[in-house]
Structures are given as structure tokens and as C-alpha cells.
Amino acid sequence: MEKSPEMPQDILRCIFATLEIPDLVRAGSVCSSWHAAYTSLCNTGNCRLEQTPCLLYTSESIDAREAGLYSLAENKVYTLILPDPPIRSRYIIGSSFGWIITADERSELHLLNPITGEQIALPSVTTIEQVKPVFDDEGAVCNYEYLWYTGEDVIFDTPSVFLLSELRDFLFYKAFLSSDPSMGGYLVVLIHNPHSQLSFARAGDNKWIWLPPHSYYEDCLFKGGLLYASTTIGEIHTFDLDAPAVTQKVFLDKMKHIYFERIYIVQSTCGDLLQIWRSNAPSCGEEEDGSDSDLELDFDRDSHVSCTTKINVHKVEPTSRKILEISSLNQNVLFLGHNQSICLHAEDYPQLKANNVYFTDDNYDNYLYTTDFRNNRRDIGIFDLENNSSEEITTPQLWSNWPTPVWLTPNPRRMNFGTLCS
Q1: Which of 105, 148, 273, 338 has the CB geometry, 3.0–4.6 Å to 156, for a possible disulfide?
Q2: Are the C-beta atoms of 168 and 107 separated by less than 8 Å?
Q3: Burial class of residue 59, CB neighbours in 10 A (0-12, 13-18, 19+)
Q4: Beta carbons of 150 and 212 less than 8 angstroms apart
Q5: One-letter-per-residue 3-state SS of 317-342
Q6: pLDDT tens, 92-101?
Q7: Average pLDDT over residues 389-402
Q8: How far apart are CA 175 and CA 299, in angstroms?
């Protein structure tokens, strides 16, 4: 029987470059020829970049080294096998360009691509301005000294001493990347405590660089070679981190006098800068035990639930240095949480709902909510801006409540075949 001619590799790569991650992985397993095209595509970085975001989570029903990946494009769950340390033992404090930023049980930070399994160690936590190592008699780090000051004031004169695994509860809030680490030349920016300050590191650095004096930052965005950082009162500061001496400017003055909402900044699909205000309430209706008493919620840690109740979208007017509230995102879609805030166009992602916000939990300030209330149901859902209502992403809940799930835009560059299985 005559053997059928194989499809040329360049044609296979062109076809594969249009696929979502699950379909790409399945195509790469069909035969040796398709696998060669698949591997070449991922190694060269020419695969499709417009991947539909997925929800990355852990679950007690799977191994501690595994993570679940819920595909919004397919409404299907996949399992990722990740490298040590076990993902369920880590904190997830950021997600950018298909990589997550995690803090392990020693409070040390790593970049991890859940699709390829590649991992990069970041500078030691002991090089952050407010952290000092404490050594035992044998010269090993046994604790961390945590200094309570910002670039503007001293909060407490006496430092705290934390266990290695305990520091991450108090220190880390969010982390962001300037670009895809698989392409090199990236920056990592941390929002960390006390009082949500900024530090950053370049690829290959061995220490974190502190960015005083300001604090109370909520979200960051890289745009036009600058870092844009938004505060809890709506200020936006810009930083040129590539300058010989880092420069800072005030791009937008404060927009409110009190901070209650979470603040996000994101670039719209047409290039506008948007500022998003997300309001939370202590509870959403009755709790699972049937109690609806606010007094009881104050004392019962396991029943304390924070829920998104309102999302307001504002367009930033750079000329007038004001913001203008807009009533609709039209065909745009937002993704908010511990991920780098994302704005997509629904016409390019037919599985997504236009004028909706897909959100996950990142409510740190409310009594260390996402780190201290670990057994509580997470605030995750889809918010419809037209009728100010939210719905669950999937029922029943697939994920464990800790670490809190995060949005991930899958990045298959240099993927290791076989890390994804259904």
C-alpha cells in the first residue's frame, strides 16, 4: 500500500499557529511529523499569541504538584503537571504573559510557565529593602526581620521577626512582568508591604531595587516603555525604569479622598488608558451555614466572605488629567485579579461575553483576606456591566479556596510536550 505524502512542515506550522493551546497540544501528539511541527513552532515563539485566558487553580482532588486549568474557550478542565516546589504549597501573586509569579515556603519568588514547566528563580527576598535575614548558629537563614517603614514614614520603630514561610503572608501583594520572559529582557515589578510599595528587578539581577517614596499602590501596567502604577486613591505615577537613573512623574492626581474600591489600570483595545474601580462587600447573601448575621460574620473567620458588588469603568484623559466614567465597554472584555489586568475584544474571542468583567479574588487589605481567610469561598465570577449583576464561572466550584485562583493567558513558547493532559 502506497504511503500518503506528508503535509509540508511550513504548512503545518501555519495551521498550528492559529490554534488554542488544548488543540495545539492534541495536534502535536497525532504523529511524529505533526509533533516536529508543533515543537518547532513553540521553540521559535511563532505560535498564536491571542490565546483565550484560562483559570489556573489548585484542588485537593488532584496531586499537590498538579494544577487545574479551566478553559473558557472549551468549557473544559485540563490538568498541568508542574515542577517542584508543589504548586499547592506556593502563593500566586501575579500572572503575566502566560507566566505566574509564586512565593514558596521560604518566601522566595519564582517565575513559572505552567504550560512549558519552565521556571526562573528571582532575586532573594532578603534583598528587598524592608527584609533582612536572621541566621542560626550554623550560618543558615532561619528567620526574616521585617522592617516597618516606607519612603515617607516609619510605621513601627521595632521590626518584626517572621518564620521563613510566614513572611509571605505580610510582604507580598502583586507582581507584574514587562514582557514574556521566554523572549528575554524582561522586568519584574513587585507591589509589597509595608503599605504597598514598589520594587523591581531586571532579568538576571541578583537584588530588588526599591522605588521610594510613594506607597499604597494597587495595580501596574507597562505601556510605551514606561511603568504606570495606580494607587488606592486613583493617582497614576509613571516610571522610566530603563533610564540610567529611574525617573518618576505624576501622570494623574488623586481621583478620590478615601479608598474603598480596588483600583486597576488597563489599556483598552483601541489604546485608551482605563481606570477600573471594583467595590466589595463583606458578604453576598446567606452563607453556607444559613447565617446572615453581620455580627456573626465579624467573629467567624470561616464564614467571612468578600464579594464584588460594583465595577465602574473610567477613561483616563491625559490632557485634562481627569477621568471620565463610561457606561459600557461595548465589545471589550476585562480580566481582573492577581493577573496583569487585560482588555480583549470579544469579536476576536467568540467564547467571551462582551461588556463583561471576568474577575478573581485579590482582596488583600481586608484583614489580609486572601492570605488569612484561606478556607473561605473565593470571590470569582463574571460581572455584567449592563445590569450590574454577576454569575459564577462554573458550577460546582472546581477549585480549592487556597491559593486563590488566577487568570492565565497560556503561553506555549518552548513547551515541553506532554505537560498537558485531559
Answers
A1: 148
A2: yes
A3: middle
A4: yes
A5: ECCCCEEEEECCCCCEEEEECCECCE
A6: 999 999 999 9
A7: 89
A8: 31
